[in-house]
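Priority: low. Protein: YXWGXW repeat-containing protein. Input follows.
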Amino acid sequence: MNRSLRVLLVNAALVLAGVSAVVSSASAEVIIVAPSAPPAVRYEVVPAARVGYVWDHGHWRWDRGQYVWEAGHWQVERIGYHWVPGHWAGRGDGWRWIDGHWA
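Result:
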């Protein structure tokens, strides 16, 4: 199956699942767009520090037309980098999820 057909099928599946998303054929990146702002962030107790790991706080994810809480978790530390947590950003067409990444 060629790449363009796979991208088309992924986009169709996301639409049928009630997710507004765009899949770029160049990068195969999925961009999640929610129609409304996420709820307030939940309070989480951060576990005791672990050597070689950084804590990635929990966040709301968009799933089948609603926000669902995803608990925080540990990320394996990358020496010389810092963790930039994922976050929601308001845009003209809704709210977009920006993935966490190392910078």
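Strands lie at 20-23, 30-34, 53-56, 59-63, 66-70, 73-76, 83-84, 87-91, 94-98, 101-102. The chain has a mean pLDDT of 82.
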